[in-house]
Amino acid sequence: MTNINGFFTDVTEHYPDYLRDESRRTGTAESISFPKSEDELRVQLAELYKNKTPITLQGARTGITGGAVPNGGHILNLNRMNHIMGILPHPSEDAFILTVQPGVLLADLRLLLENRNFDTTSWSQESLKTLADFTTKKGYFFPPDPTEASASIGGMVSCNASGARSFFYGPTRDYVETLRVVLSDGSVINLKRGEQKTSGRSFSAITSTGRKISGSLPEYNMPKVKNASGYFVYDNMDLLDLFIGAEGTLGVISEIGIKLVPCPPVIWGVMAFLPSEEIALNFVKTVRSAEEKPIALEFFNHGSLDLLRKQKESNPAFKDIATMPPAFHTGVYLEYHGPDEETVENTVMNMSEIMTTAGGDTDATWMASDKHCMEQLKNFRHALPEAVNLQIDEKRKKEPTLTKLGTDLAVPDDKLEEIINIYNRDLTEAGLNYVIFGHIGNNHVHVNIIPNTPEEYQRGKNLYLKWAAQVVAMGGSVSAEHGIGKLKTEMLKTMFGEEGIKQMKETRNYFNPDNLLNRGNLFSA
């Protein structure tokens, strides 16, 4: 293994884990580097640019669309750029802006915010003064909550991650205030929300080297649903928003200013079990239009609960559900935040009336009103993806090529029942094993198909492509939170058409003209 300017070779032998991500795909690479600072990052990018070496960007590799899987060239892994750079007051809100490097993990950030134990070695005097004020106040938090708390903040920005609480709080984009982006040639663009606006769809930016980049953004309209598909564009937008969800195809994010908002004093969780899917869907429609909206609204179909019952011996999180009678057919999780116990209790009581009117039963409900019980409910919610992965891993012992098929489609409110009926009908007719779960508050549920054979996998893939076209026709999105990566490029084309893809590539070429960064993400390599 050689180390030249921080570049390590013999990746297959010495760094095999970096050839794959959670998509279960494996790639190839000739070299890898782990910059610790923006300066190191810029030097390495400039060296790679001279040789026109393709670069795959990586964070914590928790993505499931193959975006961090290399296809030759160099791996630039940012997980050692994991420092907190400083904190400043938000200019207009009861909030703070914490500046972090992209390799900071969400789980570590949460712990730091809880303990307020920051390494302030290189912080400015202004940051130290702000920290003194920050520590005298009640808690603040970063609302985005993807299932994988091991995700990096840079990765979350790269695909505009969301999660269960996005029903109320919105996706990562809503909490990004500043970005520093290093372009493929090593130059830097500094972006601050509200300061660099487009004129209609026209934009202009100046790099650290004085180079002016200007042009026009794509003309397509974004779907009015939860969306993480392609470049985010609209008239007179913040240029910063273009880079959020761009999946590393425009530049390398070296610093992120994230907004911290006040923690809710009281958090309650409710897991309601309904006697049928129809009753569950009616309950969802009514409760999400109620005056007191839940923070999270999650769905578990009958197949999901059955899978958890079958897995009861392999994970403690499955134990309680295993004791629930089969009559508890479909699950709906709700979360409520409030200023005090009385307010949240009254809100939950009102929700209970809605639930019983819809056909539910308070006796078939779990309630969590303290931190310990909330953690148990959280473990239960996150147990299902793990149960699916366990099933796939078991089947891969006989068929090593198998992977799960997981959808990430979202539709408008009035299409929710229609799309779930389509899923159930098509999967039953195809004879495939599946579970449906996820963020039903945003009409965004994940269908996980668990194939037994390569032929079943292909059957499931064909359904997925068919559904993508149907969802687009409904005004929906082919990816609501996971991004496109390398696995869904055909779906992005289905969503925006050849002309939309052409315009996106033109936008990419302004910032990444040689297509060196994350080649194969969003668009076929």
Describe this structure in words.
The chain has helices spanning 11-14, 38-50, 106-115, 125-134, 153-159, 166-169, 240-243, 277-288, 302-310, 319-322, 341-358, 371-396, 416-430, 454-473, 489-511, and strands at 3-4, 7-8, 31-33, 55-58, 74-77, 84-89, 96-100, 140-141, 176-182, 188-192, 202-206, 212-216, 252-262, 266-274, 296-300, 330-338, 365-368, 405-406, 434-439, 444-449. α8 (277-288) crosses α11, α9 packs across α12 and α13 runs antiparallel to α14 (454-473). The protein contains 15 helices and 20 strands. By secondary structure, the protein is of the alpha+beta class. The protein folds into three domains: 3-77, 2-Layer Sandwich (Uridine Diphospho-n-acetylenolpyruvylglucosamine Reductase, domain 2); 84-262, Uridine Diphospho-n-acetylenolpyruvylglucosamine Reductase, domain 3, CATH 3.30.465.10; 266-473, Vanillyl-alcohol Oxidase, Chain A, domain 3 (3-Layer(aba) Sandwich), CATH 3.40.462. β6 (84-89) and β7 form a beta hairpin.
